Structure formats: structure tokens, C-alpha cells
């Protein structure tokens, strides 16, 4: 997967992809991330990329020309499956969306700043708008980093244990169960006996019960979503 990111703050995106899992994904050639400075596409004297909004009001708007120059420069070299604008008024990112996007080839991400981008760019170039939650960030860069992380770890071959993404929180509308490591006892606090029993059926059942209970308490909305999906799929066959 190739991901191009257009931003006015390239410095913010210098390091998040050079660590851990995303670094490994790139080292293995499974993921390429390229960051582009929007100012490089400005033809104005101070490399200006924003302007006052028509109709008045505080806050600058990212202008058409540099955005179009940047995207057309990239589109002349690569074909993108989605042009994604990171904006607080986009669709909220969730695991099913991350799963879907991880199956795409090339993605172009555009980080919003100031009051946002000229509406005409959204209408004529953007194919998908994504928010990472109901709070406001000072720009789309950190949201883009979150999205790239969520996608990168899903690419086949990126995770060491290829099955482990299957058991993430949210993959089946359940939060993940509690986990423990050595020692078996720390300050008198013991690891649940079942995990030491060696009985894998019992352990799977316990984990499922714990995941269900945790989800009931913390995110009952997820259980409802899971039920709705099961209804859509219809009764299991075979
Ligand atoms: Cl994508 N951008 C900004 N500026 N704020 C956000 C966001 C994006 N998602 C949540 N808050």
C-alpha cells in the first residue's frame, strides 16, 4: 500500500511512521508513506496556501490552487483508490472502516488546517472524509497518523503473529479481555487460576466471558451494533 499525505505541517509527520510496527511494514516493503508539503505547490510570493473566507468571519481557508496543483501532480504519477480529507466533520473512524481501507491500493490523505479547505475541493476531488473522534485537533496531521497506524498494522504480513489482529478489541464488536504475564503472583495479586490451567477450551470460554462483561460495562453500544450486524447477515448456514 502506498499512502501520500499532503500537509502544511510536514514536520508533524516526520517521525510517527519510523517506529515499531509501521517501520517494520515499510522495511518489508508492505507500506510506503510519502509526506508532501502543500507550500511547495503555492505560486504566491510567501508560499501562502490560505486566504480569508468569502462572506467574512474569523479564520483562514485553504485555497484551491495549491491543493489542485498538489493533487494533480500526484495523480499524474499514481492512481488513488481514495482521496481522504481528514476533518472533524467527516465520518468517524472505526475498525470496520480501517479494515476496508486496509484492502485498498493507494491512498491520498489531505490534512485540514485553519477553518478547513475550500468546499469546491471537497466536492470535486475528495472521495472520503474521515474524523478520528468528537473533539477538535489543531490540524488533520495527528488524525492522518492515527489512520495510517490503524491501516498499516492490518496489512498482511505486517504483524508478527498474523492472527493477532483478529483478536483486537472491536474486531468482533467486543473489547479485548484482560491479559496477564509473569509473575503468577505480585504483591499477593494472583493471575486468575483458569489462565494457568492449561485447559484451552476453558481459557477461550473465560476470555470470551470477560470480553463480553467488559463490553457490557464499558461499551454497551458495541454489543447492540454486533446484534444489528448479525441480523443483517441472517442466520448462520451449514
Ligand atoms: Cl481529522 N481533524 C481535526 N482538525 N480535528 C479532529 C479530527 C480531524 N478528528 C477529530 N478531531
UniProtKB/TrEMBL annotation:
S-adenosyl-L-methionine binds at residues 112, 132-137. GO terms for molecular function: tRNA (guanine(37)-N1)-methyltransferase activity. It is found in: Cytoplasm. Gene3D superfamilies: 3.40.1280.10, tRNA(m1g37)methyltransferase, domain 2 (1.10.1270.20). GO terms for cellular component: cytosol. It catalyses: guanosine(37) in tRNA + S-adenosyl-L-methionine = N(1)-methylguanosine(37) in tRNA + S-adenosyl-L-homocysteine + H(+). The keyword Hydrolase does not apply. Keywords: Cytoplasm, Methyltransferase, S-adenosyl-L-methionine, Transferase, tRNA processing. The keyword Methyltransferase applies. Residues 1-225 form the tRNA methyltransferase TRMD/TRM10-type domain. It is an enzyme of class 2 (transferase). Belongs to the RNA methyltransferase TrmD family. Homodimer. PANTHER family: TRNA (GUANINE-N(1)-)-METHYLTRANSFERASE (PTHR46417:SF1). This is tRNA (guanine-N(1)-)-methyltransferase. The gene is trmD.
Amino acid at each position: 500500500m502506498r499512502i501520500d499525505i499532503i500537509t502544511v505541517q510536514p514536520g508533524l509527520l516526520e517521525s510517527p511512521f519510523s517506529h515499531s510496527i509501521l517501520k517494520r511494514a515499510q522495511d518489508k516493503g508492505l507500506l510506503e508513506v510519502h509526506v508532501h508539503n502543500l507550500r511547495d505547490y503555492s505560486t504566491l510570493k510567501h508560499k501562502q496556501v490560505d486566504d480569508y473566507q468569502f462572506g467574512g468571519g474569523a479564520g483562514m481557508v485553504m485555497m484551491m490552487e495549491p491543493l489542485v496543483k498538489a493533487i494533480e501532480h500526484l495523480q499524474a504519477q499514481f492512481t488513488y483508490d481514495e482521496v481522504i480529507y481528514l476533518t472533524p466533520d467527516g465520518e468517524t473512524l472505526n475498525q470496520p472502516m480501517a479494515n476496508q481501507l486496509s484492502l485498498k491500493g493507494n491512498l491520498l490523505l489531505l490534512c485540514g488546517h485553519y477553518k478547513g479547505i475550500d468546499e469546491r475541493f471537497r466536492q470535486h476531488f475528495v472521495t472520503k472524509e474521515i474524523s478520528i473522534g468528537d473533539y477538535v485537533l489543531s490540524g488533520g496531521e495527528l488524525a492522518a497518523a492515527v489512520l495510517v497506524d490503524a491501516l498499516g498494522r492490518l496489512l498482511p504480513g505486517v504483524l508478527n503473529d498474523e492472527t493477532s489482529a483478529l483478536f483486537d478489541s472491536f474486531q468482533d464488536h467486543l473489547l479485548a479481555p484482560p491479559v496477564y504475564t509473569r509473575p503468577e503472583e505480585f504483591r499477593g495479586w494472583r493471575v486468575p487460576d483458569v489462565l494457568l490451567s492449561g485447559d484451552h477450551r476453558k481459557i477461550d470460554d473465560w476470555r470470551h466471558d470477560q470480553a463480553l462483561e467488559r463490553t457490557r460495562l464499558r461499551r454497551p453500544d458495541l454489543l447492540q451494533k454486533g446484534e444489528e450486524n448479525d441480523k443483517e447477515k441472517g442466520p448462520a448456514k451449514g
